[in-house]
Design goal:
Blueprint: H1 4-15, H2 26-35, E1 62-63, E2 66-67, E3 81-89, H3 93-101, E4 105-110, E5 113-117, H4 124-134, E6 139-148, E7 151-152, H5 161-165, E8 182-186, E9 201-206, E10 213-214, H6 218-228, E11 241-246, E12 248-251, E13 254-258, H7 259-271, E14 276-279, E15 281-282, H8 287-298, E16 303-306, E17 326-331, E18 347-352, E19 356-359, E20 365-369, H9 375-386, H10 392-402
Parallel strand pairs: 8-11, 8-14, 9-11, 14-16, 16-17, 17-18
Antiparallel strand pairs: 1-2, 3-5, 3-6, 4-5, 6-13, 6-15, 7-20, 10-12, 12-13, 19-20
Helix pairs in contact: 7-8, 9-10
Length: about 425
Amino acid sequence: MSSPTTSLRALLVALGLVAVPGLLAAPLLVASAYAQDDDDDHDDDDWDSGSSDDDDDDDQPWMGGRIVRRPAPVAVPLPEQADDQVVVASLDAAGRDVLLAAGFLIISESSGRLLLELPDDLDVEAALAAVREASPEALVAPNSYYRSQAVPVGCEGAMCEHWEAVDWPPLSVGATCVFSPHIGVIDTGVNLDHPMLSEARLTLETIGSVDAEPSELKHGTAVVAMFVGSGRVPGLAPAAEVFVVDPFGRVGQDERSDVFALADALDRLATADVDVASLSLAGPDNAILADAISRIQTAGIPVVAAVGNAGPRAEAMYPAAYPDVVAVTAVDRRQNIYRRAVQGEHVSFAAPGVDISTAASISGIRPQTGTSFAVPFVTTALAAALAKGVEPPAAMDALVAASLDLGEPGRDAVFGWGLVRIPSPC
């Protein structure tokens, strides 16, 4: 009579499985490998973007007597720019004629800038050279892409803890004065019918991005509600007038603004005479964007921008890294730096940006994470300092003096001047 072990071995031989040494331990080793995976990416992924398949009809771990592990999905890098377009500013008439004769096509024209489609025989680098040869005085750059800096999370955050961290609101607001700044926001579309925005003074202008579907409403609604929302999560400046310009569009799952539309959006904020411009977005350096940022700053409007979520070892992202832009990083409720925040000498201030409870796209509240959501705190702080009638440099000095130093003494590449504190505007 054979032992149970012998019988089991005979069965495995019949199935052709014992040829693999140590096979009986393999499933446990595979399970252990998964159980020890502590990269915690699940806490930064979109937790309501799809259904979960918890049956095993397509997993098939055993195939022909061996263990088959499906490869992990490979992340496809998002494009940094359009591969068949360039943007030109200050193009003279002679240069324009030369380019049109060479096969360039005008896709769009706004505020002295042209969005050009390239001839079939030119790539972007060759096109840049052709434009510079045709018109040496012109400003030309790729049509770069810029994306919102949000990372939705799947856990509940404290409602007001982040507000308290930045000393907001001071007791004087609502008692002796009304704080009603004019805030300019460049972001995706906004759900104007969201219950949290029912009392908001809000204007939305849509530009869109060339060759793209309209943007979704999730990111813009969440950001705007942080300024003027009402209900369980109070807005930072509920009496503010907010002008939102949407230069974003969607290509598949990629939601982005091209630099042509983004520069146009900055021009529109400048002509709207807002007190401060708030940009929860980031992307590559680009001469057209740098020029548009310089123009709005020359108009006396300070720009606040997210440092980006590319990680601490990433290169600086823009517009946050341009001179005099207020670059905002994110911290959690324990004042630890957000692990995906870009770092560098350009960082100005830190603000809460992890598990921020704000408006979901349709209704209700949803926690959000990313440097995007730190920006409204610093924008509000700067608007409050400006409300006292000072110029932007003096307002910045006031924020520096009031901030809570974090990390290395003084300004550092991780936290900038430290955790922003919102001053009384009264």
